[in-house]
Write a structure and sequence with these properties.
Blueprint lengths: L2 H31 L2 H9 L6 E2 L5 H17 L1 H13 L7 H34 L10 E2 H18 L2 H10 L5 H6 L1 H15 L5 H24 L4
Parallel strand pairs: 1-2
Helix pairs in contact: 1-3, 1-4, 2-3, 3-6, 4-5, 5-6, 7-10, 9-10
Length: about 230
């Protein structure tokens, strides 16, 4: 199937579910909004300090952002089901293979966010706050903090999807394992750019926290293709 036709089929399939998905996300966001103070308190434990606000609407908007992210986090299986059905339609991927991609995409997403919550986020915050002193005290905005953690969580959740998308592209014949093996140097360059874009702070340490796992996932994708005997 030609690329143009595949895109038309993809968007037509996506359009069937997108309205219900948007309504669902908004409804869950509204429900979670009333629980967002507890969520913020739980995540703030990594910071070990107080948060401040510098505009009247800032706390409200911060809770809205946190509720929206939590809704996307909780509804990720539905989101991925909609996405994979649309992606699989042009290539005739359905049934058990489609279920495989949906399940493992969700598992990898949650593994990425868990990795971020337990390891990357505490290390990143500790490193950045390590520059504080008696003369230089951190006064952290609640809005900036919410932006920081949500970008980190979502970024790691998404980059952990890399192996499954590599497998899918090779499965349907768009790319190949040999292509990935030959493109390592370009992969490193692209990974550095992605880490620079997704990392909330421009320091090398936090970029490395994203670059290293992302390259390891790239290699994991190649290993999975070897195991599956996909060339």
């Amino acid at each position: 199937m030609h690329t143009h036709t595949s895109l038309i089929v993809f968007f037509n399939e996506l359009r069937k579910s997108i309205r219900a998905l948007v309504v669902g996300v908004l409804a869950v966001t509204l429900i979670i909004f009333f629980l967002s103070p507890r969520l913020l308190q739980a995540v703030q434990g990594h910071l070990g300090g107080k948060l401040y606000f510098f505009a009247i609407a800032e706390p409200f908007l911060a809770h809205v952002k946190l509720a929206l992210f939590s809704a996307l986090f909780g509804l990720m299986p539905w989101i991925m089901t909609v996405l994979w059905r649309a992606m699989g339609k042009p290539f005739g991927v359905k049934g058990l293979p489609l279920t495989f991609f949906i399940v493992f995409t969700c598992l990898l997403f949650y593994a990425g966010t868990l990795f971020c919550y337990l390891l990357t986020l505490p290390m990143g915050i500790k490193f950045l706050l390590g520059y504080s002193s008696e003369e230089l005290k951190a006064v952290i905005s609640v809005s900036r903090f919410v932006n920081f953690i949500t970008i980190f969580f979502m970024g790691f959740g998404l980059i952990f999807e890399l192996p499954i998308f590599m497998v899918f592209m090779a499965w349907v014949g768009v790319s190949s394992r040999r292509f990935y093996e030959r493109s390592r140097r370009y992969a490193i360059f692209i990974i550095a750019i992605v880490a620079a874009v997704l990392t909330p702070t421009p320091d090398v340490f936090n970029m490395a926290l994203m670059c290293v796992p992302l390259y390891m996932l790239y290699e994991a994708g190649i290993i999975i293709l070897v195991i599956m005997r996909i060339k």
